[in-house]
Amino acid sequence: MAKPLGPTGEFFKRRDEWRKHPRLSNQFRHALPGLGTGVVAFGIYLIAEAAYNKPKIKSPPSTIKVIT
Length: 68
Description:
The protein is mostly helical. Helices cover 47% and strands 0% of the residues. The longest helix has 18 residues, at 35-52.
């Protein structure tokens, strides 16, 4: 069990209660719940598209046409 706080601990506990108020806590995480997942998925898509569209080394043509 927790140790009793005593008069000094109670004083600071009461003074710090405002820090846990819902309006003052970090609300940015809950404002856009799917943003992080969407950014990661879009990043994976961009990397996969860049790998797929990577220029391939073309072999030189076997015959050269000379126009006269």
